[in-house]
Design brief:
It is found in: Cytoplasm; Nucleus. By secondary structure, this protein is of the alpha/beta class. It has seven helices and seven strands. It binds adenosine-5'-diphosphate. The site of adenosine-5'-diphosphate has 14 residues, from helix 1 and helix 7.
Length: 174
């Protein structure tokens, strides 16, 4: 298998931590391709139906991985999803876990219309750093970075950091 010429970055974190906004800005800064898994699942029907309890599609992880394999092999992707343990480890050169203060996250998710257990489950997910633990269990610790993402200034700094990392990345480094 030929080495990819551009890196693949996974952007993960609790819903509302700013993955899609950050990934879009990073894509603009680097020309890497932004793949929003939630949208891809909907668009290509990579699911096993609708979950009434959680009000979302039941993602079919095998179909998602099959769909992405060629693009990931080619490289140059930013994958944006609130889960990270089902992707092949070999796909990623950097795993970014976005984190947000609880009060900030509460406001963002309330504005999105989340209430009740959907809201509290996501706040708990952030308090217990579920995605950071999942990332550390699924990938080499030295490629996992946790970044605070409460404000636009922080996001801009995070984008600049990752854009610098991307421009100095070389396949020889993997
Ligand atoms: N760094 C930030 N500072 C302030 N607001 C942000 C920031 N990142 C995202 N937001 C806002 O928070 C909300 C959730 O962001 P989004 O990117 O959709 O999160 P996710 O993809 O993780 O669910 C959106 O309204 C977005 O405009």
């Amino acid at each position: 298998m030929a080495a990819r010429s551009r890196p693949n970055i996974l952007v993960t974190g609790t819903p509302g931590t700013g993955k899609s906004t950050f990934s879009a800005a990073l894509s603009e800064a680097t020309n890497l391709r932004h793949i929003n898994i939630g949208e891809l699942v909907k668009e290509k029907n990579l699911h096993d139906g609708w979950d009434d309890d959680f009000n979302c599609y039941i993602i079919n992880e095998d179909l998602v991985c099959d769909e992405l394999e060629d693009m990931m092999e080619e490289g140059g992707n930013i994958v944006d999803y609130h889960g990270c343990d089902f992707f092949p480890e070999r796909w990623f050169d950097r795993v970014v876990v976005l984190q947000t203060e609880n009060s900030v996250l509460f406001d963002r998710l309330s504005r999105r219309g989340y209430t009740g257990s959907k809201l509290s489950n996501n706040i708990e997910c952030e308090i217990f750093q579920v995605l950071l633990e999942e990332a550390k269990e699924s990938y080499r610790e030295d490629i996992v970075v946790a970044l605070k993402n409460d404000t636009v200034d922080e996001m801009n700094t995070n984008v600049a950091t990752l854009a610098d990392w991307t421009s100095s990345w070389s396949p020889m480094l993997t």
